[in-house]
Amino acid sequence: MTLANLLALHPKYIDLSLDRMWRLLDDLGNPQNHLPPVIHIAGTNGKGSTLAMLMSMLEENGAQVHSYTSPHLVNFHERIRLNGCDISEDLLSETLAEVEQVNNGEPITFFEATTAAAFLAFSRHPADYLLLEVGLGGRLDATNVIDAPLLSIITPVSLDHEQFLGTDIRAIAAEKAGILKPSLNGMPVIISQQDEGAREVIMARATEYNLPLMCYGHDWGAYTEHGRLVVQHPDGLMDLPIPGLIGAHQIVNASTAVMAAYYLGIAEHAICEGLKKPVWPARLQKLTTGKLIDMATGEVWLDGGHNQAAAEALAVWLSDYFSSADKPVTLICGLMATKHAEKWLESFSQSHVVLNCITIPDQPNSYTAHDLTAKAQAAGLKAVAFNDLETAISAAQGDVLICGSLYLSGYVLAENDN
Fold this sequence. Notes:
2 domains; alpha/beta; six-stranded mixed β-sheet; about 40% helix; UDP-N-acetylmuramoyl-L-alanine:D-glutamate ligase; about 425 residues; Protein-Tyrosine Phosphatase, Chain A; single chain
């Protein structure tokens, strides 16, 4: 059963519930009970970056690591990685076909069916760890069927997907904290930097289950000094390299991964090497080759941050990276209409940038270039609408940051042959 057929049978809609997932997994023999030790990661921002850095550290320590992430950028196979490699086409097709046959036409969402297929693949291929990223929320996410994860991590929580998770930070944090469960291994819950309200909600959930906590700002912290990352925790200080992933916000993500690795018993030399090497596309990724790069007059960067917190992090990076530059910077932007475009755009109100706005190709729910341009101009930004990505890049002045949506990032990487 191909992905296209599966998507046709079970459209990509969101219906947060675990009943369908439990029923399908039971019919499949409950593969979720036969997984490698699970590190479950929830949060709004930084999940993927934290996962990538932790995976790099574990692999540097000699571990075999599976991972499950979403969404993908170019190929669906990116979501399911077995021992560091994307799942093969043959194995993906066989596993999806098995899930579809066992499901036998019962109601199921695309994400639930593909998550079940991932669990089947993970259960049949040995590894030391499975890094499991939550898709949406946590409490009712299809990944939240693990009885006893080895370790749970909650990255920064911010406003996003309010139509599904709640309209305030405390309600969203409660959904994220839904991944926390009673544990017998004594491993602490790693809580990254949080808004005070979110932290209170997460801590209350952990206290309910008598889970030990390691909270950023309370039990541990991180800062940069003399070109190094310093992580301070109850047992002392760790003097580490600056993470390979770019941006000041990656300091918090890196330190979160470091704390997880520390409590997993990973050697410090592996933590150091792992910090330097992770690759996580479309997170302040500098594109250096490809046909789109040939159209530009300056550097081309790519980022898929699509909510206000991500936009604020981008604005800080723009201010730092281009602070001494005397050439202009152009943002090529595309946003989904499900996002708060006004809040995203307002994050750049103090940045000296020009916005070239486009409609995200092949995405019916994208803002049109003209609608996004109007919103940008209303926010006091210089903005122009363009019919397509190529024209927007050719017209860009100076360096370019393509941003606004992971869907746009995936399109860019595919068009640029990355």
